[in-house]
Amino acid sequence: MDTIQHSSDDAPMKADPVGAPRLDRRIASRLKRDSKGLVAAVIQQFDTHEVLMVGYMNDEALRRTLSTGRVTFWSRSRQEYWRKGDTSGHVQYVKAVSLDCDGDALLVEVDQVGAACHTGARSCFEAGGPLSVVVGRRARDEEQPPAELRHDAQRDAVERRERRETR
Ligand SMILES: [Zn+2]
Q1: May I ask the CATH class of domain 25-130?
Q2: Which residues surround ligand 1, an ion (CB under 5 A)?
Q3: E-strand spans in the chain?
């Protein structure tokens, strides 16, 4: 339990004031935070499934994200809460939040206004760009994805190609 220091003067208190909203204990107990109390949050456009960016959340940032309709991160560089879009206008409206199997990462599905990346790119991964890789391929006798996923993948590949060609 947190101990709350009561003081007679107006000195700032370390613990949250009594009665301040807290992250639901059932959710908090499932989080596996890093040494700084943070979990990674993967941000995805809810309808196109583009992976937009990765940020970090502490319990309070997650509480705000779950309860306000807007994504809030904890900024590791500035050591402060950062509600996406407040300065840039590039707001992220929350559609759904999932916790991964071992509790150390969040998937936040959003409706992203404009660019997710501070560089002005739609996604941070578009901004960073692809690395060269050795492409792996599944063997013919390995389990194949369901037909509908194969069609999605095909359509995605075509769309990616079209997007590249129109640049
Ligand atoms: Zn970025």
Answers
A1: alpha beta
A2: 117, 124
A3: 39-45, 51-57, 72-75, 80-83, 92-99, 105-112
